[in-house]
Amino acid sequence: MIKIPDTNSIYVIADWIELYIATTKNNVSKTKMSSLLERASGEEPREQLISDIWCELGIRQNLYENSPFVIDRLVVEPKANIDSEVTYLACLLIALYGPSNSNKNIAKLFERLSCLAIEQYLNGEGIVFGWPVESGEETSIRERIIKVASRLNERYVESPRETYKDRGVDVVAWKPFGESRNSQVIVLLQCASGKNWQNKTTDLPLNAWEQYIHWSNNPIRAFAVPCVIPSRNWHEVSKEGGILFDRIRITNLIGAIESKDKCLAGEVASFVKNRLEETSN
Predict the structure, then answer these.
(1) What is the residue-level pLDDT of the chain in tens, covering all 281 positions?
(2) 21, 77 in Cβ contact below 8 A?
(3) CB within 8 Å of 108: residues ≥ 6 apart
(4) pTM > 0.90: yes or no
(5) Euclidean distance between CA atoms 273 and 145, whole angstroms
(6) Three-class SS state of 155
(7) Which of 42, 113, 144, 272 makes the best surface tag, with the fewest CB within 10 Å?
């Protein structure tokens, strides 16, 4: 049985139900959910907690373009043959359990998923910029900023101290016109794959980046997380972080990952398999 990390959080329990039905292909009723929570916490859950969880799942079902589950008044049921299942499960596992001891590259994997999602959103291009850099990439932030400016046909001005590593930017994405000129939509994206993501919404210093590159049009800020950002927090998080990419948007945008990036699809599938084995023990 996959463990419930937090038996008091509506959003964590909703995540757990999504993961449970997706991996077991079993239904979960309100009665069964109450029993599982009581077993995990030692206390019978309040009826209001169960009701709030069902309400949250109902909201999510309507936001997924091809919802992995169907919910009615009493039962949540899994849906079969979801083309976005691997991406969906990866985001669920990262949101629920975070980094694992056996896999130190989860944050980088999520950056790559976020990069693919924003490429689909823009119908454009993207590069993973965050630290630590990917194998074979330049480690100097100065050289990496120069490379970004060159790729986007913008003018490099200066760079921060090398201690900054990535200066809050994990992905740079843009929508080119195809004729090698600048003046285009550019997005600087920060990814937060840990459970403390709410403390990172303002970590990307857009004003500093306007000093490093002489942009023809200033870039837009964006923020990506593997969880579902609660509706009640959506506006404020967006005001701080910029355009939001949460699990629902990332899953909707990527769809069948195998048709877009076979290498990444294989790595994501391997991560999901290994992480499920770890969390089930």
Answers:
(1) 678 888 889 999 999 999 999 999 999 999 999 998 898 888 899 999 999 999 999 999 999 999 999 999 889 999 987 788 999 999 999 999 886 545 558 999 999 999 999 999 999 999 999 999 988 889 999 999 999 999 999 999 999 999 999 999 999 999 999 898 999 999 999 999 988 999 999 999 999 999 999 999 999 999 999 999 999 999 999 999 999 999 999 999 999 999 999 999 999 999 999 999 888 76
(2) yes
(3) 128, 130, 132, 134
(4) yes
(5) 36
(6) strand
(7) 42
